[in-house]
């Protein structure tokens, strides 16, 4: 079953809708990005519940992050995270060299200024998924050369 | 081994849930932004149209179906190939009009509406209107102008979900004047 296309296209339409009424000032842009992130958060929460209902309890934070990098990423983006790095003090960097939602945007540096809009929903998705696994976090993303990108997860100690 | 195969089937299902959940978030946002259901319906139709005109390319690339000879064939391809491929369900094709230009797609369950309940103040919301726009957009790209609407909706209390599709006309390919 070819699943990526509908979600990719829906995601694009979502971004187009949320961002169209905003002009391109920084604050408006920021608002759009926040809206997208919040939507992703709710979807991530719902999705992780379904995905983990039969999995065993996670041993620790690293186990949770590995699950996100492997099972969660595969389910949502059809591949695993290519590289996971951590400082073992609550900061994780997830690298995806061929991020599904950026692939159709460009291969290189063109349209770089639009990339944050295309990453916001996914940041929320990860934050929502972690939240329902009992992990509070802040998730940001950065891109320098598409379609590769890095997601930064900062665990918040409650 | 059995755990692994569980994973694969689960991940396929999960993926349609990703779409369903994202779609739900979108409809919620639209309901917040627009005062009335009619506006939301229009937006969903427009977005669906935008998705349809691009999805058709993906569909044609992946499926290898050739040009359909008539509307009946189109109906079959929509139900048995497209719906199955993208939504994981196969609606049945019924209720053909005598002229053969109108038919219904009957869905026992609508994957877009999994886990969804319409609150009382949204009686005229056509929750899955994205589908109508998408079908219209996709078919327009293959030179068919159609009218698509929901005739029945399980979310509104009907027993099945029925999409009614009507063939309007064939769209002639218009080449810009001045091209050879």
UniProtKB/TrEMBL annotation, chain A:
Cell compartment(s), UniProt: Endoplasmic reticulum; Golgi apparatus, cis-Golgi network
Pfam families according to UniProt: TRAPP
Name the record gives this protein: Trafficking protein particle complex subunit 6B
Keywords, comma-separated and alphabetical: Endoplasmic reticulum, Golgi apparatus, Neurogenesis
GO BP term (any one): nervous system development
Protein family: Belongs to the TRAPP small subunits family. BET3 subfamily.
InterPro entries xrefs: NO_sig/Golgi_transp_ligand-bd (IPR024096), TRAPP_component (IPR007194), TRAPPC6/Trs33 (IPR037992)
Keyword rRNA-binding: no
GO cellular component, one term: endoplasmic reticulum
Task performed by this protein: Component of a transport protein particle (TRAPP) complex that may function in specific stages of inter-organelle traffic. Specifically involved in the early development of neural circuitry, likely by controlling the frequency and amplitude of intracellular calcium transients implicated in the regulation of neuron differentiation and survival.
Main location group: endoplasmic reticulum
Entry-linked CDD domains: TRAPPC6A_Trs33 (cd14944)
From TrEMBL, chain B:
Keywords, alphabetical: Endoplasmic reticulum, ER-Golgi transport, Golgi apparatus, Lipoprotein, Palmitate, Transport
Family that this chain belongs to: Belongs to the TRAPP small subunits family. BET3 subfamily.
Gene3D superfamilies: Trafficking protein particle complex subunit 3 (3.30.1380.20)
Classification via InterPro entries: Bet3 (IPR016721), NO_sig/Golgi_transp_ligand-bd (IPR024096), TRAPP_component (IPR007194)
Subcellular localization(s) per the UniProt record: Endoplasmic reticulum; Golgi apparatus, cis-Golgi network
Protein name per the record: Trafficking protein particle complex subunit
UniProt keyword annotation of Nucleotide-binding present: no
GO CC aspect terms: endoplasmic reticulum; Golgi apparatus; TRAPP complex
Domain of life: Eukaryota
GO BP, one annotated term: Golgi vesicle transport
This protein's record includes keyword Transport: yes
CDD domains in alphabetical order: TRAPPC3_bet3
Assembly notes: Homodimer.
Protein purpose: May play a role in vesicular transport from endoplasmic reticulum to Golgi.
């Amino acid at each position: 079953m070819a699943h990526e296309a509908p979600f990719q296209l829906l995601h694009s339409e979502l971004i187009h809708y949320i961002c169209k009424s905003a002009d391109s000032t920084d604050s408006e842009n920021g608002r759009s990005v926040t809206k997208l992130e919040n939507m992703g958060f709710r979807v991530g929460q719902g999705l992780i519940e379904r995905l983990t209902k039969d999995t065993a309890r996670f041993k620790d934070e690293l186990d949770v992050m590995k699950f996100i990098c492997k099972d969660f990423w595969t389910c949502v983006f059809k591949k695993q995270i290519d590289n996971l790095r951590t400082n073992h003090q609550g900061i994780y960097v997830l690298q995806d060299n061929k991020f599904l939602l950026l692939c159709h945007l460009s291969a290189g540096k063109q349209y770089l200024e639009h990339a944050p809009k295309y990453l916001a929903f996914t940041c929320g998705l990860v934050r929502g998924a972690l939240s329902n696994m009992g992990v509070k976090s802040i998730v940001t993303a950065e891109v320098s050369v598409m379609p590769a990108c890095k997601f930064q997860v900062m665990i918040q100690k409650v | 081994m059995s755990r692994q195969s569980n994973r694969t089937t689960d991940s396929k299902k999960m993926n349609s849930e990703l779409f369903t959940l994202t779609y739900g978030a979108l409809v919620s946002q639209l309901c917040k932004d627009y005062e009335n259901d009619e506006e939301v319906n229009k937006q969903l139709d427009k977005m669906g149209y935008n998705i349809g005109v691009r999805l058709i390319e993906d569909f044609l690339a992946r499926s290898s179906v050739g040009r359909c000879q008539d509307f009946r064939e189109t109906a079959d391809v929509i139900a048995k190939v497209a719906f199955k491929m993208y939504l994981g369900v196969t609606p049945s094709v019924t209720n053909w009009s005598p002229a053969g230009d109108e038919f219904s797609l009957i869905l026992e369950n609508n994957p877009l509406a999994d886990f969804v309940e319409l609150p009382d103040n949204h009686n005229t919301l056509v929750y899955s209107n994205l589908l109508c726009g998408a079908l219209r957009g996709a078919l327009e790209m293959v030179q068919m102008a159609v009218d698509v609407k929901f005739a029945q909706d399980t979310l509104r209390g009907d027993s099945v979900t029925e999409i009614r599709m009507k063939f309007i006309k064939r769209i002639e390919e218009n080449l810009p004047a001045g091209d050879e």
